Amino acid sequence: MVMKPETMNDILEITQKLHRQLADNLVSSADQSPPEREKLLLEYLSEHEDTLARTLDTFQKESDLGPLDTWFYTYTDRHNIVERDLSKIPFGEMDTGEIAAEIANLHDQLIDLYSHLYERAESDSARKVLSQLLDVEKSKGKLISYESGQSGDF
């Protein structure tokens, strides 16, 4: 996805699509007949990414429109939101440790984006929205990372 967002609303739309794209890739990779542990992990992570996409969609629909119209182009004009095309990550060829590391890296990139924007937000309302986004991404990312690390228990 090579879209250059300009407003917080654009960022929400794109990150929602990224989570949805990641969920789709994870479920598609699970259908490629990887070993059972990896398949269970991929299906589990797909459900979590889908939940994150739905959470962002709800957040976007229920948020005050003022902060969502805040312009943030100083970061996104020089950096992609994520470093690679999420539909091309070969999860079906990875072991559980590689899958967990890849997912953690992707969530870290989104946390870095939200943190960067939070630090540069000029209004309290924009900082509040970004703080909420950071909380969602950090809590879900930590949960996914922790439970991915426990995948040996599947």
Please explain how this structure is put together.
The chain has helices at 8-30, 36-62, 65-68, 73-76, 96-120, 124-149. It is an all-alpha fold. The protein has a single domain, classed as Ferritin, core subunit, four-helix bundle (Ferritin, Up-down Bundle). The model has no long low-confidence stretch (mean pLDDT 83).
What's the short story on this structure?
With 154 residues, this protein is mostly helical. It is built from six helices and no strands.
Terminal Cα span: 33 Å
Question: Low-confidence parts lasting 5 or more residues at pLDDT below 50?
Answer: none
Provide the CATH architecture: Up-down Bundle
CATH topological fold name? Ferritin
Strand fraction: under 5%
- Spatial extent as radius of gyration: 16 Å
User: What is the average of the pLDDT values?
Assistant: 83
Topology as H/E string?
HHHHHH
CATH superfamily label: Ferritin, core subunit, four-helix bundle
Helix content: over 70%
The number of helical runs is 6
- Structural class, by secondary structure, is mainly alpha
Count of folded domains:
1
What is the count of β-strands? 0
Identify the overall geometry: elongated
CATH class: Mainly Alpha
Write the layout of secondary structure elements.
Blueprint: H1 8-30, H2 36-62, H3 65-68, H4 73-76, H5 96-120, H6 124-149
